[in-house]
């Protein structure tokens, strides 16, 4: 016990900070290799119909990453009143392989309508009803022969890939059960990230505490993961109780003022932030966490590109 041969700084650096770029590289290389080997580079069309600076930044960033990977990307800007007709044109144009719309456009339920206007065969973000329904019902394939995987929303999928990369998924367990025994808190329950993410992780066997500013819900497959798909339960658990049990905490609060109270976390926790804001203090978390992932954007875009290649392949098999 007494004297340790470890230099002091390696004790202080016990927390591993994992850069999203490191996780994204393997996927980006796969996408690039597939494009290099194929006759036609896929075409992704992005519609920008708002003045939101975060949306424009994300659009510019999609453009840059696509160019680096050899994907053709076309940003189509239009007034929001014309958006629906422009989407229909792109749906019907066989030259277009994937479509995405930068949100928010109208905000609220009308944006959900727009999500459903994109043809499922071109929906790279997996936000239309068919993919969402399949995800919530743990239906993983589009066809009976199980050759075509369903499209999963990019940001939740990026979190799954990061959890696989850092070993939260236990590869000794069978596919579909690899999170059995893990307890995960997600601070965000939006329709595009937090709720689908809670569902995916619970379908894979985790017990998930899904937190928003109004309360907490539990997503899981019951004791011994006997249920085929996750169920959602009301709970009286507090944030402090949830965090005290959690092996992983994932934050996505869209506010510069929100800071996760790291004193509530388990020692050796794994912490991931997907918000554009620093929901987790970088110094404080390094005292507590075994692994910290400060942002995930690069993996999200890699998943977008991967989804696009899938859709292109499905389209080719349809027209063959
Ligand atoms: N890295 C990436 O790939 C992506 C990052 N983002 C970022 O993630 C953040 C969230 O995006 P969305 O989910 O689309 O936002 P949203 O506004 O639709 O949802 C925010 C969620 O956080 C919850 N929330 C707000 N304040 C809270 C609080 N004090 N405590 C607990 N929960 C609270 C809300 O109830 C809601 O569930 C944004 O900063 C966005 O830019 C979004 C998409 C992709
Ligand atoms: N249909 C749709 N899908 C979206 O995914 C979507 C959208 N609309 N509208 C706008 C928001 C915003 N958004 C961000 C994604 C990543 C970072 C992110 O993590 N960026 C990194 C890296 C930035 C870089 O490397 O340049 C960072 O800030 O550290 C931020 C914001 C996605 N959005």
Description of the molecule:
By secondary structure, the chain is an alpha/beta fold. Among the domains are: 39-125, Leucine Dehydrogenase, chain A, domain 1 (Rossmann fold); 166-299, NAD(P)-binding Rossmann-like Domain (Rossmann fold, 3-Layer(aba) Sandwich), CATH 3.40.50.720. It contains eleven helices and eleven strands. It has helices at residues 8-12, 20-37, 53-69, 83-92, 109-117, 129-136, 154-165, 194-203, 239-245, 282-286, 297-319; strands at residues 16-17, 43-48, 72-77, 98-101, 183-187, 207-212, 215-220, 231-234, 248-251, 270-273, 291-293. The strands form two sheets. Strands 1-11-10-9-5-6-7-8 form an eight-stranded mixed beta sheet, sandwiched between helices. The chain has a three-stranded parallel beta sheet with strand order 3-2-4, with helices on both faces. Helix 3 links the parallel strand 2 (43-48) and strand 3 (72-77). Helix 2 packs parallel to helix 11 (297-319) and helix 7 packs across helix 11 (297-319). The chain is globular. It starts with 7 loop residues before the first helix and ends with a helix. The model has no long low-confidence stretch (mean pLDDT 94). 5,10-Methenyltetrahydrofolate (GUE) binds next to helix 3, strand 4 and helix 11. This is Methylenetetrahydrofolate dehydrogenase [NAD(+)]. Keywords: One-carbon metabolism, Oxidoreductase. Residues 153-212 form the Tetrahydrofolate dehydrogenase/cyclohydrolase NAD(P)-binding domain.
């Amino acid at each position: 016990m007494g004297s340790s041969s470890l230099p002091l700084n390696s004790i202080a650096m016990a927390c591993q900070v994992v850069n999203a770029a490191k996780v994204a590289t393997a996927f980006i290389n796969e996408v690039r290799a597939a494009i290099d080997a194929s006759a036609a580079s896929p075409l992704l069309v992005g519609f920008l119909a708002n003045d939101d600076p975060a949306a424009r930044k994300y659009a510019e960033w999609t453009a840059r990453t696509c160019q680096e990977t050899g994907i053709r990307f076309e940003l189509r800007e239009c007034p929001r009143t014309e958006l629906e007709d422009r989407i229909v044109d792109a749906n019907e144009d066989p030259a277009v392989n994937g479509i995405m719309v930068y949100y928010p456009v109208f905000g609220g339920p009308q944006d959900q309508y727009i999500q459903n206007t994109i043809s499922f065969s071109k929906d790279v973000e997996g936000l239309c009803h068919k993919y969402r329904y399949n995800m919530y019902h743990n239906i993983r394939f589009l066809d009976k022969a199980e050759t075509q995987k369903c499209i999963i929303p990019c940001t939740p999928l990026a979190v799954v890939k990061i959890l696989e990369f850092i070993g939260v998924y236990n590869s000794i367990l069978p596919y579909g059960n690899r999170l059995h025994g893990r307890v995960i808190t997600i601070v965000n329950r939006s329709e595009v990230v937090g709720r689908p993410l809670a569902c995916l992780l619970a379908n894979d066997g985790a017990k998930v505490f899904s937190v928003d500013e109004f309360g907490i819900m539990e997503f899981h497959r019951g004791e011994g993961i006997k249920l085929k798909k996750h169920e959602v339960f009301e709970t009286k658990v507090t944030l402090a109780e949830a965090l005290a049990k959690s092996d992983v905490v994932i934050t996505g609060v869209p506010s510069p003022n929100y800071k996760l109270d790291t004193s509530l976390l388990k020692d050796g926790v794994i912490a991931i932030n997907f918000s554009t804001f620093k929901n987790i203090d970088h110094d404080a978390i390094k005292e507590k966490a075994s692994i910290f992932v400060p942002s995930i954007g690069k993996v999200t875009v890699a998943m977008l590109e991967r989804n696009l290649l899938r859709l292109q392949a499905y389209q080719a098999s349809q027209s063959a």
